[in-house]
Recover the amino acids of this structure.
């Protein structure tokens, strides 16, 4: 598939990994629809990318009707969608039995709802739209990329909800790719290690430094552009499908 003149939908595109991906798609001559809860930040990102080729919608990825409407409107504006990057996510820590008591079910469910159910909600809406796309020479109609985390494999203390949500994304990748294969739609997941984004900024500097030191090589946090570059290379290679790719400098998270 050719990224030039194609249309990418990027959830969580107002910040971090999603914003870096939006920028790469624009650099390659594509058009970008950002879906993000943070209206102001999304609008500021679009301002930087250029309003001719990008647009943002303030929408919650867990809103089924809202996402269906947004995907239809996005297609109306920029044409058929060839790429979905599911980057919206939250990371609320909490131990099962913590200092404030037992983890409330609503707190666990909130993380699952945004990270896992929200990703699936957008995936299905975009797949429904992509099935009508023209094919490339290989019969490919589009690519859906989800964002898991290395915490989906080795979650740390306090990550029970986050790791469950990311493990769910890893689990849905192969069956989603198998379901959508007959329509020429690929599904791939990236599992990042520790990346320098506003989500990471929430941690104290010494914690960030020790996380970076725990990465064998390169011994630093990942750059959002490195995530975006992997995503674009997946787009360029039709043979990559149904797989979760770790992007982590060989880090394996310890228990805490
Ligand atoms: N930064 C890391 O080290 C790291 C590591 C592994 C995985 N990830 C995952 O990568 C993804 C992107 O993370 P990031 O570091 O860029 O975070 P970020 O906080 O910079 O960006 C996340 C974006 O998602 C948006 N968002 C949150 N909830 C939403 C909702 N319900 N509906 C729509 N938009 C919503 C936020 O407004 C924000 O703009 C997340 O899924 C995160 O779990 C990040």
């Amino acid at each position: 598939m050719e990224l030039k003149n194609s249309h990418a939908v990027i959830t969580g595109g107002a910040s971090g990994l999603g914003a870096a991906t939006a920028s790469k798609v624009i650099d390659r001559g594509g058009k970008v629809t950002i879906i993000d809860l943070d209206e102001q930040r999304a609008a500021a990102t679009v301002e930087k990318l250029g309003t001719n080729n990008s647009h943002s919608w303030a929408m919650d990825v867990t809103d089924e009707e809202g996402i269906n409407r947004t995907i239809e409107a996005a297609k109306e504006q920029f044409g058929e969608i060839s790429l979905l990057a599911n980057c919206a996510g939250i990371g609320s820590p909490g131990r099962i039995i913590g200092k404030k008591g037992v983890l409330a079910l609503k707190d666990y469910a909130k993380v699952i709802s945004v990270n896992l159910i929200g990703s699936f909600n957008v995936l299905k809406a975009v797949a429904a739209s992509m099935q009508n796309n023209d094919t490339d020479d290989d019969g490919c109609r589009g690519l859906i990329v989800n964002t898991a985390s290395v915490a989906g494999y080795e979650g740390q203390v306090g990550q029970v909800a986050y790791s469950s949500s990311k493990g769910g994304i890893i689990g849905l990748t192969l069956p989603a790719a198998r379901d959508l294969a007959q329509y020429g739609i690929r599904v791939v997941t990236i599992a990042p290690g520790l990346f320098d984004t506003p989500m990471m900024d929430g941690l104290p500097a010494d914690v960030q430094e020790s996380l970076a030191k725990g990465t064998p090589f390169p011994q630093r946090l990942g750059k959002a552009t490195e995530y975006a570059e992997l995503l674009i290379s997946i787009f360029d290679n039709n043979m990559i499908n149904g797989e979760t790719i770790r992007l982590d400098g060989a880090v394996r998270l310890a228990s805490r």
Remarks:
- The chain has eight helices and nine strands.
- Residues 11-12, 14-18, 36-38, 41, 60-62, 87-91, 114-115, 118, 147, 149, 192, 194-195, 197-200 surround nicotinamide-adenine-dinucleotide (CB under 6 Å).
- The domain at 7-247 is CATH 3.40.50.720 (Rossmann fold).
